[in-house]
Specification:
The complex is a heterodimer of chains A (177) and B (460).
Chain A: E1 5-12, H1 15-27, E2 33-36, H2 42-47, H3 55-81, H4 94-121, E3 144-149, H5 157-166, E4 171-176
Antiparallel strand pairs in A: 1-3, 1-4, 2-3
Helix pairs in contact in A: 3-4
Chain B: H1 22-34, H2 40-66, H3 80-105, H4 115-135, H5 162-195, H6 199-209, H7 216-249, H8 261-287, H9 296-326, H10 330-341, H11 345-357, H12 365-368, H13 371-398, H14 413-436, H15 442-446
Classes of the chains: A alpha+beta (177), B mainly alpha (460).
Chain lengths: 177, 460
């Protein structure tokens, strides 16, 4: 019995090769694939159809929550919990609340951006099969990798491997689980 | 690197020296951290920082034991050095956020090689700034009273006070700066994890990198997150010094009570911040041989920002004087007149010299192109900006409405020890950062290389 693998990984030495390989793989019908690069490549996002993510929505919700928290906290303190009458001025002095409302909007927005980033990326992730490929350490230096995962319905060890070889990579390797 | 093609580009964009490859930029920046050899320069700066940090701890221990009376703060100058230093430090921090957030949104790619250490500078400057209001509280161990929390005393902070706004503004600023800095570090921590040969280092960087692997899915979310954080940090940084200036403008003290303070303070903050960026970048790049990444173009651009913000500050000084005269307010007029001719006149004219007259030399390309002169000029601006804060705070408080309550502020040795001590804290934190984390954002510098461009004709 052959041991199941995570996928097949092809190594390229420039971003152009990786982007065209990713486009070719999409064209072949592969959908469960991921590319790894040492810096963000806009064309790659395009090639893999990754343009939509929910982060802006998460940040919007976080910001609104922060703004509400800031305003309502100040309202509660100055009107309900600890009212101080200063020369008969209104307790609900909203202009004075604006700054802290604003600061908490930013604070909650920024925290939700970071948590959202980690959440959407599935980080922290202590283990990932990609690291089983010894040369993958170069993905954070100067090499570009395309990985077609075994979960893909079109995945077949021989045929996928042969396909990746046609893209003229430096090397194709199997990714163990 | 022999196994990687070099791409020659037109020399118009000299924000990075020609001849670099993905491999060589990675190695050059990572080696500073991963090498076993520590330069003598680092040892010297770190030792100075550590020594001054001990001075700071000594001063603070004495302050805790005896109280704020060891400082020169006496009625009516109750803010003295503490608030001067607070405003000075927090202003220095602003350049880091400007570089990392505003220049990112404006697509100024030259920022990529100076944003990391500038953000670190922000973080440590805010840490130093935060010391002063807390130490100045009189009972620093009760600093948590500044935040609203349910308590048995039945009292709450006064949300209509700019001092409480300041607590929220500065703590938000510190938190957001830390988050932004950490998010920026994530891919570089992964690089260090993959490059190091030491097991302890691999484990530590591995934990911090959280399993970052440069996946396209991650990068796409990452880019969105960077833009959103930059978009949030931009209004934040403008608001922080605005709120700091509210500490003054909302009071009725002559010399403080002006609607002009917020833009004046923000410009001054960026002015001193860029001076600090230059004061750090110039020695670092020559010691670590990073002239190819932090090029003369960067120094030139930073000097131009300094010149521009310096002119705004000059305009503010002129307008401040004009308003005092034009308002016809006798107290405003007397306050500015006292500043110019009274006991603090030497400080006032020194700050005019440091902040307005001498920086005009930056118009000359010869000065902007000479790192040594730029270094000296940035120190002049830092001194000038400190004097500005000192004059605004101390001279306004020393001579306000009632001549019978006028009194001159005399700084004690503990004032100086605490101030110089925070410079030690800053140096200590900054040089610890230089040794343990990459001082230049490796992945962002990779995107500056000509070979990072995807050639479109290959598409398909």
């Amino acid at each position: 019995m052959i041991k199941p693998i995570y996928g097949l990984m092809a190594e390229f030495d420039n971003p152009t090769a990786l982007v065209s390989a990713a486009r070719a793989a999409r064209q072949q019908g592969y959908r469960k694939l991921d590319a790894y690069s040492p810096f963000p490549i806009e064309e790659l996002t395009d090639a893999l159809h990754l343009h939509h993510n929910r982060l802006p929505l998460i940040v919007l919700c976080g910001g609104i929550l922060g703004g509400l928290t800031g305003y309502l906290m100040q309202y509660y303190v100055t009107v309900i919990s600890f009212p101080i009458n200063i020369g008969g001025r209104p307790l609900h002095s909203w202009p004075a609340y604006i700054i802290i409302t604003f600061e908490l909007t930013i604070l909650f927005g920024a925290i939700s951006a970071v948590l959202g980033l980690l959440g959407l990326c599935g980080l922290p992730m202590p283990y990932h099969p990609a690291f089983n490929v010894p040369r993958f350490a170069l993905a954070s230096r100067n090499r570009f990798f395309l990985c077609i995962e075994a979960e893909d319905p079109l995945f077949d060890r021989e045929r996928t491997s042969a396909f990746l070889e046609t893209l003229e990579p430096r090397e194709v390797s199997e990714v163990a689980h | 690197m022999a196994d990687e093609p070099q791409v020659i580009e037109r020399p118009q964009s000299r924000i990075i020296a020609p001849g670099y490859t993905f491999g060589t930029v990675t190695d050059q920046i990572a080696t500073v951290v991963l090498t076993g050899r520590t330069p003598v320069f680092w040892m010297a700066c770190f030792s100075v920082g550590l020594a001054l940090l001990f001075l700071f701890l000594w001063a603070v221990a004495l302050l805790f034991a005896k109280g704020v009376g060891i400082w020169g703060i006496r009625t009516p100058v109750m803010w003295g050095f503490a608030i001067t230093n607070f405003v000075w430090w927090i202003g220095i921090g602003h350049a880091g956020t400007l570089i990392s957030a505003i220049l990112l949104l404006l697509n100024q790619r030259w920022r990529n090689s100076i944003n990391r250490f500038a953000e670190a500078m922000t973080l440590f400057a805010v840490a130093c700034a935060g010391m002063f209001p807390i130490l100045h509280l009189g009972r620093p161990w009760l600093a948590y009273w500044l935040f609203p929390y349910p308590n048995t005393m039945g009292v709450q902070p006064q949300f209509r006070s700019p001092l409480v706004w300041d607590v929220f503004a500065v703590s938000t600023y510190a938190t957001v700066s830390l988050l932004f800095w950490f998010v920026g570090l994530l891919p570089d921590l992964a690089t260090l994890r993959d490059r190091t040969t030491s097991r302890i280092a691999r484990f530590s960087y591995g934990i911090l990198a959280m399993g970052w692997r440069g996946s396209a899915r991650h990068w796409s979310v990452y880019e969105t997150a960077s833009l959103l954080l930059a978009g949030l940090a931009t209004p934040l940084v403008l608001s922080v010094h605005t709120v700091v200036s509210f500490d003054f403008t909302i009071a009725i003290v002559p010399g403080w009570h002006s609607t002009f303070f917020p833009p004046y303070f923000v410009a001054g903050a960026i002015y001193s911040g860029f001076a600090m960026v230059l004061a750090l970048a110039i020695p670092l790049r020559s010691v670590y041989g990073l002239q190819g990444l932090i090029t003369d173009k960067h120094l030139d651009n930073s000097a131009k920002v300094m010149l521009a913000t310096g002119l705004i500050v000059a305009y503010a000084y002129i307008l401040e004087t004009f308003t005092a005269w034009y308002s016809g307010n006798v107290y405003e007029g007397a306050s500015i007149w006292n500043r110019m001719t009274g006991p603090y006149a030497p400080y006032y004219w020194a700050l005019i010299m440091c902040n307005i007259i001498l920086p005009q030399c930056l118009w000359m390309k010869r000065v902007r192109g000479n790192p040594l002169l730029l270094f000296i000029w940035s120190i002049i601006v830092l001194v000038g900006m400190w004097l500005e804060r000192f004059v605004i705070i101390v001279s306004s408080l020393a001579q306000d409405f009632l001549p019978s309550s006028w009194s001159i502020f005399q700084a004690t040795r503990w004032d100086w020890a605490t101030y110089i001590g925070t410079i030690g804290l800053f140096l200590f934190l900054f040089f610890t950062f230089i040794r343990l984390l990459p001082m230049i954002s490796i992945f962002e510098v990779r995107t500056l290389l000509p070979q990072a461009k995807v050639e479109e004709e290959v598409r398909g």
